[in-house]
């Protein structure tokens, strides 16, 4: 990002036949939140209705002209698209717009690059970034020196995009080898936990659903320190590195894990890079699927999380759906065997949740 001011961005999205109005608007709102998390200032949004994307430029020629004028008038630094672009589309758009071109995948990778703290997390993000960038070198490389420092050119990509593909392939292999060593250590820890027969609880869910707040609430009540253990705020992907703590609930010792949040169209490179970490999380005895029930799209987001859990091989019988922020909705909340209503922030329903965890 530029040090002097926020990076000025315009958002671009196609409404295709398979997109209903509610999901399309929800996706755009999420893109704005992603931009905010990345540190960009969104100046506006340009949309187009088409039956399919334009193969060479994603949007039509007339919309390209409109975008060119908009970028010049508003002094836009970066154009951010709400879908993944092909290498040829990126190259053509850069040539036509003379701006930094970022797609949804690049934006998410950029955020992950900013948020990674642990060695394993940094290795995983760099691997995902390089595997995504490798086939797109022809699209970004010629403009990198002019656009360096913006969204999509940060972290792993900033210096390595200008290097040849042979070097990148070697770096990717080195990262995979390093991650294998980390995974071996993780596997040994997993075996030790199984031998100890200690119950393991993992918090999963859509990003910004309140997992970290719930994690902190349980730790304040049950961790020896009596303090918050992770940062929690209203930005997407605040938690990136998996955090595990030993707590005691009703005299029962157990391990509780806070995990990275899922998101619609989560880049498959990221899923692959974080697979070992996520697989360990979903092997827990209990999976607390935290859902923000005040979100208008919460049902769609439940399905997104379920799809990822199934892809990771989770036992769905171990899932308890935890409807968070239940204090903010009207009507009576009815807990059942697979669901429970809480407010992680206000403490509503937490004792009932603890009873459920202990007795499961």
- Calculate Rg over CA atoms: 22 Å
CATH architecture of the largest domain: 3-Layer(aba) Sandwich
CATH class of the largest domain: Alpha Beta
The shape, in one word, is globular
Low-confidence stretches: 139-148
Q: Biggest sheet, strands in spatial order?
A: 6-7-5-8-9-10
Helical percentage: 40-55%
**Number of structural units classed as domains:** 3
Structural class assignment = alpha/beta
What labels describe this entry?
360 residues, alpha/beta, Rossmann fold, 3 domains, 4-stranded parallel sheet, cytoplasm
Kindly summarize this structure in a few lines:
The chain has 360 residues and is an alpha/beta fold. The protein has helices at residues 21-38, 61-74, 87-97, 104-115, 119-133, 137-140, 144-147, 156-160, 165-196, 211-222, 268-273, 275-282, 298-311, 350-359; strands spanning 7-15, 40-49, 78-81, 100-102, 199-205, 243-249, 252-258, 286-292, 319-324, 339-341.
Description:
This protein is α/β, with parallel strands linked by helices. The chain folds into three domains: 107 residues, GTPase HflX, N-terminal domain (Rossmann fold, 3-Layer(aba) Sandwich), CATH 3.40.50.11060; 57 residues; 162 residues, Rossmann fold (3-Layer(aba) Sandwich), CATH 3.40.50.300. The protein contains 14 helices and ten strands. The strands form two sheets. The protein has a six-stranded mixed beta sheet, sandwiched between helices. Strands 2-1-3-4 form a four-stranded parallel beta sheet, with helices on both faces. Helix 13 links the parallel strand 8 and strand 9. The radius of gyration is 22 Å and the shape is globular. The N and C termini lie far apart (47 Å). About 3% of the residues have low confidence.
């Amino acid at each position: 990002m530029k040090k002097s001011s926020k990076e000025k961005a315009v958002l671009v999205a196609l409404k295709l036949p398979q997109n209903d109005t509610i999901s399309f608007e929800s996706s755009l709102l999420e893109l704005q939140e992603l931009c905010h998390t990345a540190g960009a200032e969104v100046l506006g949004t340009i949309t187009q209705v088409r039956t399919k994307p334009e193969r060479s430029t994603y949007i039509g020629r007339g919309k390209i002209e409109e975008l060119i004028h908009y970028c010049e008038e508003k002094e836009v630094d970066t154009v951010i698209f709400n879908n993944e672009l092909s290498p040829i589309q990126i190259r053509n758009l850069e040539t036509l717009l003379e701006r930094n071109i970022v797609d949804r995948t690049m934006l998410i990778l950029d955020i992950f690059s900013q948020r990674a703290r642990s060695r394993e997390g940094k290795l995983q993000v760099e691997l995902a970034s390089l595997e995504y960038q490798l086939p797109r070198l022809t699209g970004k490389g010629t403009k990198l020196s002019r656009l360096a420092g913006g969204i999509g050119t940060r972290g792993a990509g900033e210096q390595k995009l200008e290097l040849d593909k042979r070097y990148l392939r070697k770096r990717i292999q080195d990262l995979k080898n390093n991650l294998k060593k980390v995974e071996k250590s993780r596997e040994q820890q997993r075996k030790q936990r199984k031998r100890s027969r200690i119950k393991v609880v993992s918090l999963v869910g859509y990003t910004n659903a309140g997992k970290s707040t719930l994690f902190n609430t349980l730790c304040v009540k049950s961790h020896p320190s009596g303090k918050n253990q992770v940062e929690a705020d209203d930005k997407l992907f605040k938690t990136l590195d998996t955090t595990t703590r030993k707590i005691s609930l009703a005299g029962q010792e157990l391990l509780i894990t806070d995990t990275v949040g899922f998101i619609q169209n989560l880049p498959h490179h990221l899923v692959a890079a974080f697979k070992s970490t996520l697989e360990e999380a979903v092997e827990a005895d209990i999976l607390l699927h935290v859902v923000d029930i005040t979100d208008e799209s919460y049902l769609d987001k439940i399905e997104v999380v379920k799809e990822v859990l199934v892809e990771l091989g989770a036992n769905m019988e171990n899932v308890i759906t935890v409807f968070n922020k239940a204090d903010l909705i009207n009507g009576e909340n009815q807990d059942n065997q697979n669901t429970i209503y809480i407010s992680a922030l206000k403490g509503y329903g937490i004792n009932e949740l603890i009873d459920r965890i202990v007795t499961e």
